[in-house]
Amino acid sequence: MRFDEAYSGKVFIGSCPNYGESEVVLYGMPMDWTVSYRPGSRFGPGRIREVSIGLEEYSPYLDRELKEIKYFDAGDIPLPFGNAQRSLDMIEAFVDKLLNDGKFPLGMGGEHLVSWPVMKSVYKKYPDLAVIHMDAHTDLRTEYEGEPLSHSTPIRKVAELIGPENVYSFGIRSGMKEEFQWAKENGMHISKFEVLEPLKEILPKLMNRPVYVTIDIDVLDPAHAPGTGTVDAGGITSKELLASIHEIARSEVQVIGADLVEVAPVYDASEQTANTASKLIREMLLGWVK
Amino acid sequence: MRFDEAYSGKVFIGSCPNYGESEVVLYGMPMDWTVSYRPGSRFGPGRIREVSIGLEEYSPYLDRELKEIKYFDAGDIPLPFGNAQRSLDMIEAFVDKLLNDGKFPLGMGGEHLVSWPVMKSVYKKYPDLAVIHMDAHTDLRTEYEGEPLSHSTPIRKVAELIGPENVYSFGIRSGMKEEFQWAKENGMHISKFEVLEPLKEILPKLMNRPVYVTIDIDVLDPAHAPGTGTVDAGGITSKELLASIHEIARSEVQVIGADLVEVAPVYDASEQTANTASKLIREMLLGWVK
Amino acid sequence: MRFDEAYSGKVFIGSCPNYGESEVVLYGMPMDWTVSYRPGSRFGPGRIREVSIGLEEYSPYLDRELKEIKYFDAGDIPLPFGNAQRSLDMIEAFVDKLLNDGKFPLGMGGEHLVSWPVMKSVYKKYPDLAVIHMDAHTDLRTEYEGEPLSHSTPIRKVAELIGPENVYSFGIRSGMKEEFQWAKENGMHISKFEVLEPLKEILPKLMNRPVYVTIDIDVLDPAHAPGTGTVDAGGITSKELLASIHEIARSEVQVIGADLVEVAPVYDASEQTANTASKLIREMLLGWVK
Amino acid sequence: MRFDEAYSGKVFIGSCPNYGESEVVLYGMPMDWTVSYRPGSRFGPGRIREVSIGLEEYSPYLDRELKEIKYFDAGDIPLPFGNAQRSLDMIEAFVDKLLNDGKFPLGMGGEHLVSWPVMKSVYKKYPDLAVIHMDAHTDLRTEYEGEPLSHSTPIRKVAELIGPENVYSFGIRSGMKEEFQWAKENGMHISKFEVLEPLKEILPKLMNRPVYVTIDIDVLDPAHAPGTGTVDAGGITSKELLASIHEIARSEVQVIGADLVEVAPVYDASEQTANTASKLIREMLLGWVK
Amino acid sequence: MRFDEAYSGKVFIGSCPNYGESEVVLYGMPMDWTVSYRPGSRFGPGRIREVSIGLEEYSPYLDRELKEIKYFDAGDIPLPFGNAQRSLDMIEAFVDKLLNDGKFPLGMGGEHLVSWPVMKSVYKKYPDLAVIHMDAHTDLRTEYEGEPLSHSTPIRKVAELIGPENVYSFGIRSGMKEEFQWAKENGMHISKFEVLEPLKEILPKLMNRPVYVTIDIDVLDPAHAPGTGTVDAGGITSKELLASIHEIARSEVQVIGADLVEVAPVYDASEQTANTASKLIREMLLGWVK
Amino acid sequence: MRFDEAYSGKVFIGSCPNYGESEVVLYGMPMDWTVSYRPGSRFGPGRIREVSIGLEEYSPYLDRELKEIKYFDAGDIPLPFGNAQRSLDMIEAFVDKLLNDGKFPLGMGGEHLVSWPVMKSVYKKYPDLAVIHMDAHTDLRTEYEGEPLSHSTPIRKVAELIGPENVYSFGIRSGMKEEFQWAKENGMHISKFEVLEPLKEILPKLMNRPVYVTIDIDVLDPAHAPGTGTVDAGGITSKELLASIHEIARSEVQVIGADLVEVAPVYDASEQTANTASKLIREMLLGWVK
Fold this sequence. Notes:
By secondary structure, the first copy, chain A, is α/β, with parallel strands linked by helices. Chain A has helices spanning 44-51, 84-100, 115-125, 154-162, 177-185, 196-202, 238-250, 272-288, and strands at 24-29, 58-59, 64-65, 71-76, 104-109, 130-134, 167-172, 189-192, 210-216, 254-261.
């Protein structure tokens, strides 16, 4: 007696009704309390689901349809407003459970700090983990205005956990001088400004390794993603980001989880960022879940 | 394994998970294809649900909590875009089923024409039906630019079906001269401009009768409901509309179904109209479902 | 072979095609170059016309229809950007012509300074002119930051021209101390905060006199008219403004011209101000043109 | 006595006052009732005209001025809201008349379904017609949710009418698997993702043939055209679309009519899409009308 | 060599350049990390300052000018993003300093939780403190989703600190049943829905007592303050709120500090809320600082 | 006792507190009264400062930090609204003073006409001045609708002052036929459509010459700068504009002053244009001040 949930914008289009039968679990991490500039990404996952009804279920890029994959949309994790530590703990516990059940975790943020507990969880299962990170910002601070739990720190944290040499950042065009220096001195890969071309060089090195991919929507130029907390001019186009997703799809890399973060609907005047994010989620599903 | 649906904006806050156990069914009628001015109300029900998470579940007006009522949110009826007749048929069939199952139908529009098949269905069950109509517009046209299925016609249709003397319009401040004349000549009640005071006079006359209440959000002044298709200055305040809902709640009238229509999110810059609509739905639930 | 112009938003709804046969001429004065705060009212007249298609042609307040009056929409006067003096000269010449041809001038601004040349022109024809002024602001400055041609000065200019005792301001809630003092010392009437009640007292005194009415849309509270250059909290409702227009309509005052100014579409997120303005224009036409 | 109409945003800049003397007729088709996602394109033609005042009349791309062409702006066809069939009939009759009078039809939508009756009409005059179609979407469905009259079907309809081998689609990045298959199996040309380069290859094949060009503004990336119903990331830039228009202008193809559809002002926060559309119309006029 | 700071929107209009000579200190508390619904009030103080340039410096309500008072605009306290406890500590330390220096603290939020450390600080200086609280919400929770530091708790905290019988809430229209019960059982005053009339009754009881006034902008109806985190229909008008401020100004109450919180510019489509807030700040200064 | 001014959005991030010690002076020219289309750029400088808090102080493009340069933010020049001539005089006097004190002038508009008095002043000091101009528009008119002081004329004025052969325009895609002809006939350089590639050719010719660079933000495509008065499709990307700034930085050209004009916040729905402008200012500082 209930109408199709995707039609009502309740779940991501094409998702299956049962957790048990799913290969992939799509989930929201509606946290934005540590951002230093414009908050609002807590509403990102909800809006991405809502606009997914406008998507076709077929990808002409990958010649694949959503019905070929079983994914369950778990909704948003009910995080405690303003408490970063408890929020991160809840996310980690949730992803632990997913991995334990053999699911592919596909997360939607929320601010970028939410990726940190996910990667921690993934690393427990995959000790030879590599991370591909697409972003405008280095996110390599140790703290921000005295706070170690900040949206500016997740990549530093994961680099220290899994080794900086296992983290590959692309599209970076903003950060403190010290962050770039730390990366250089510690053997962490940073491709400034560009994504697709350097990715083509790096992917062969990661062949057969388990890779977690974290995409901050602000790797896109503000023209392509105005609806995010911290826009930064000079970014890549959505065409280039789609091509980068497809490049990974066609590589020998074994993607074992991914996220897309920092969509902030209140700054997304025409809903273009949410629409773009929903297409990116579709391509991540179709390209990375074999 | 799925998180609370209201938290993710998927269902109206506090709704129960099963159709079977519910007294009330909340449903969306996402149709806007016959509007003559600004479309967009198809997205009304979805946005009302989404923002309902911002509501408290308790009404200090009625001293009652949502948990005292069992209501099921059925989502949106999947209406065929651009086909008015088929859409109306689907709505009528759906409400027939609800009434057959003993449910209280609480609908969300969509354009006002969606109320027509609902009232048709309700009339089949309640032959002594009266209708209370709150709106800026008469909606008494027989057709609009040659189209008999138009958002300008639902009250005329129901008046012809159940008898004009059983229809009571309030807050009306816009219409053709002919519409006002038709009402006058046919014994239909129209209170121009005001709602609360004339309602107090009329309610005693409807004592113990089954009443369907249809509220067009544009009965509110544009200051209180900018997010609707056809705004019209000089309307009532949300305080007055709340008081009118409470007046009905305290009366001897037997409300047997209701709707709230014409919320158009794309014109609702600050989401105030959707937030107001979600509060009105709460008060309608708490006040009218005994 | 050309479709109805009102349908395409080209002219105000119901206007007649020929200047010659018209009693009233509706015209735009798209000037906003002297405003001290937020510009944008140059686009006001165009947007008011465009949204007029959403109006009914009948007023249930006055029981009168637009077809009972012949009015011609002349479009916008092509004012030279950034040159206040030349703009004012062009407006004055245009209104001189209208008055010479026996037309009722009904202007749409634009910033309030545009009313000054109109009133100058009107005064040449009607030496016993009185002015009714509804506004949030006194507009009684002699200059602004050294500029005598400023949106803060038109009422001072007209008061000095026709005598302060012939100017009646209503709804005023903002101004310099000196402006209020000047009015007091010079016998000019100012009703602070309110419009309708003081208007009822003043109207009998103006019986049979020719009166020009100039309405700054910001006399409305920002809730009712967000789309204007200088919003100021604590204003009247659109219901009260409508009632004030109707009060004048029912009085013995002889309105011989009027304007509505300061609608700024770019600040009118939901187009509510433009819609309200188009309804006010309709009521001014139906109420003041006998 | 009426001011210049383009100045007031009433007609497209530079248009001539008489139908009789014109070579080209510009007209609006304000229909959006069959769209499956976001409505609002009914207001597209009006806004395109309004912002055209911001255009220069000279094209530095084509070294040609608007005054070299005589075009008449007929306004918007007054289509019956919510009735798709009657709307299409009215459009077809109007274009029949234009073609009979020897005019070049240049239409502005409205949803893409409006192109169907135009192309039907054009085909009656030009039996060897070819169609160039630029769009993000295939528009090759036979029906949508049971409706054969849907914004997802116009290209299928014209392909079946004039033969799929005479239809050339460019820039396509969204559709059902079945649509792409149907095109392939039936010899219809689809260039996925790109426009300019494949166009260069196709144009020589169409030498001297009468060609109708239909452009859905969503062929542009959402960064370049946020103001449309269904945005889809990964599109072309406005620079590329301009170059494509110029490529056709310089080819031996005989353009005999064209349209630009799907501009939806309510989603066009900064009016950039309407401004871009008005420039595209200028270039189509200057490039395609010899 | 620096231009007037208010002109550039840097400080609140009319503020004096030196802390030392000031009677009042105006300061921002840009914190929004514990809000449960829509964040963004961190940008409130900045926007209020910026739009203050649109204000007149004279109040026709109080017949007083800003130059009669010396107030210093200290800017925003640089709070650590996402750390509620440290933020509150910094605010308390800052206000301790102000009070020690004999200043009148006039704060701008930020979420309502920022008022808690201010009131704590004020209570240290004034042990017979009473609090006047105007708000849509009770804010009497002990915690929210497990968090004791939440925007839903400040009034509970202050009530427990200074005694519930010393806290007077007005305009309340939202809260949990338990919150209303707690207030009732503990002798705390709550006026539901209304502000001005109950305030007139309460003020004589507070004669000569030191009173801190905390105003949540959402006590206003969403029509009057759309730009806030949690809008709730049925509120008071800005006219009523102004009258309430003036009522306090004319009473025998000794206001010793105040704040205005929860202005969220990103939801303030036309900047009306910020403009209203800046006028409220002016009236608070002119009315409450003797 | 005052908090950091950049934190409160009062001054551009990283600016130094004293005029005396500065090498560069950043200043706003908040004038928009002669624009022919959409006004609003008067608020540009303020918003650019405000959002600069979101910038990193390090440029990964130039490997340089803001702290390496001493610049003072003087605020906005208090220009008289609506008086173009007096405004230009004030700007010229201010820049005369800066140059006299040995400062590098870095201006923010405001409409493009503000660059004219700046360049006049600069030319007095540098008689062998060359001008690099990046813009969508030629700005070579002698007057606009009879006004010689118009936003369409500044480049013509400077070309006539310093000789057309010393003016180099890039990215031009809009203008009257006569403007392009005048440039051609008078030896002024215009690169149509492109900036970076032609700039590479021109820069060597300007080696060691003093160069003033004036950038109209609308040289960017509307996708990259929707927040400006006159958008024009087919522009360059922000990536290309950044590269152009860096190309100049790496050349032998001696930049002796610069400006960035035409940012209009009210059309900048997501604040992306202001954010981009603040990054451009940072790169201009880091790249052009040696």
